[in-house]
Amino acid sequence: MSSESARILPLKVLAVLSGAVLLAHLAILRGAPMTLGLSQPEPPRAFTTRSIELVPAKPTSAEQPVAPPAIAPRENTPPAAPKIARQKPAETRTSHDDSVPPPATVINEAEIPDPAATPPKEPSSEDAQLAAAPRPPPDRISAAMAYTVPGSVIIKYKVESNKFPFSASAELVWRQDGASYEARLELSAFGQTRVQTSRGQVTPEGLAPTRFSDKYRSEVAAHFDREKGKVTFSANTPDVPLLAGAQDRLSILVQLAAMIAGDPGHYPEATTIAIQTIGPRDADTWLFTVGREETLSLPGGEPVTIKLVRNPREEFDQKVELWLAPALGYLPVRIRITEPNGDFVDQKWLATEGQY
Predict the structure, then answer these.
(1) Residue 129, SS3 per DSSP
(2) How many other β-carbons are positioned within 10 Å of the β-carbon of residue 343?
């Protein structure tokens, strides 16, 4: 091959290669605008702000949250307590001495402060609640110095009342053996009966009841819990404090007899005798005023008596009048109970079985 032919061959190869390169570039340029030249930022999801916000960023000094100032706790000064502690108890106390109540203390609703005027205090314990009982009026109250409990006896009564035009009957059965006692008062009228019963112990201070019941159709009772110092009721009424010398509404008839028989000269006219008296549902102050000597004309005779009166202290209190006969150990030969509306029941001595 001549030298001229050798030069022509490379030129042909070069031309082919050049053409191929041009064709390749042309192909690339035609497809390139679909992916590169017109590319735009991705939709907002490409710059996901949510994912960035989830990463806690360190706040600047201007963005630092301001923490509330630390307050050191105060010892022994709980919130609002100082206002209550500053209230002076003397503002709601009565003028009597604020020492521990004497044994004759009784529940007297008239002496309980008005809840609207005095904020109620929540008792811290049952014992504190029982100890909160107010005191009875101290004027001219006589404490018993001696007791002479009458012997066993049955006293029958003729009963008169403005509630019915005919007479009814009643019977007081009193039994004691020197250590324990039982008293039963039964009133019969219209073929119906009402029975009160008291049971307890005979002590150097007279009677110490343990149970009192009142039955008319159904029975309600009071129980004397001396270990816990309270009285509980079967009628689901609140407990009350049990104080020294407390009686029930039946045993008080015999207790008064035992007190006066123990020392008659200790109870002159106008003397007041105060006794905590327990009913079937509650307790109250019973204040008896000693009256003058009277001779009565009764179905059973004309006994000499000493009259005791419990006058009403509240709107719905009963008036109770007792005539105690020394010849019967100062047991009552007449008992008259008057209701606030004027209705009365009058028990008059008719006969006695046994001797005191």
Answers:
(1) helix
(2) 12
Q: What is the pLDDT of residues 60-74, one digit of tens each?
A: 444 454 444 444 444
Q: Which fold has domain 153-353?
A: outer membrane lipoprotein receptor (LolB), chain A (2.50.20)
As given in the structure block, the two tokens for residue 58 are 């360190």
Give 225-232's long-range contacts (Cβ < 8 A, gap of 24+): 229/130, 230/130, 231/278, 231/283
Name the residue type at position 168: A
Nearest in space to 175 (alpha carbons), one of 185, 166, 167: 185
Annotated domain spans of the chain: 153-353
First vs last C-alpha separation in the chain: 176
Amino acid at 46: A
The residue type at 134: P
Whether 206 and 144 have beta carbons less than 8 Å apart is answered as: yes
pLDDT digits (tens, 9 = 90+) for 218-251: 999 999 999 999 999 998 899 999 999 999 999 9
- Of the candidates 256, 28, 272, the one whose C-alpha atom is nearest the C-alpha of residue 140 is 272
Nearest CA-CA partner of 134 in 243, 280, 255: 243
Angle (nearest 5°) at CA 159 between 214 and 253: 50
